[in-house]
Fold:
Amino acid sequence: MNIKISENIKRLRKEKKITQEGLAEIFNVTPAAVSKWENDETYPDITLLFPLSHFFGVSIDELMGYDYMLIEEEIKKVKEEINLAWPINNDWGKAKELTFAARLKYPNDYEIMVKYLFFLTGGTADNDTKVLVQNEKEIFKVCDIILEGCNVENYRLEAITYKAKVLYAKGDELGALELLNNFPSFYHTSGQKIEQLYQKGTKEFYNQLTQNLYELAIFVGNKLGKQISYNKKLSNVEKLSKVEKLVSLYNNISNDSDYDVIVKIIKTAVNEVVNRSDLIGLNNQEIELLEKLKYSINK
Structure:
């Protein structure tokens, strides 16, 4: 996004058939100042933007050279590049670099703000408390911008979550819980309420019900994988045994469409354990076995 006020002032001045000296006299500045505006050496004082736009018969945005359609296309492209880097290509570094640059270039885009918070804090979970505390002012500043101006509820909830993370990192667990205890329960999610919008037996009801069911299956699978991974009562051998049992169950039901939801839970759970294999202290041989199990259900 480039500010094109210099070339616009020059173009509009010539269209009005007025000299630099004439424009300078009208706005009580020196001809040298107008020359610097047009040569992109300086910008007009902010107090002159409205008088200049009124004089030339254009909006301030037009005077500045903003093209919102082009900017929106730029932002859309940047978001696609970020999503391609992470999570599709698993390139955290590139996605973080793109997001930080986008935050500077498009400071009013709330979706980019949320992505920025994600990469600034290290993700949605397992955050480094030192990072949270070190970036407290920046995190709170961005969160407050979202909460004060954004109407997208998902983004607002993310902002509240990041504020809670900082409070918890600073030792204020009660403050963090106070923020998060106001979140809606499963029964008050948008998907659940949309499902209740339709009469039972209608196509719309069934489609939303199915969508909710599969979202819950992924959620349950994610939690099951974490439960296996972080259960300190289980040895690594026992954890592997649980994964093998899940894969065995998968092999018995994967070809039966009646068990699609259970299949999705199993695949999500196994993938979750594999993704956390390094964090939970598995050795190379155990990780290799997990990778084989994962491959067997994802091929």
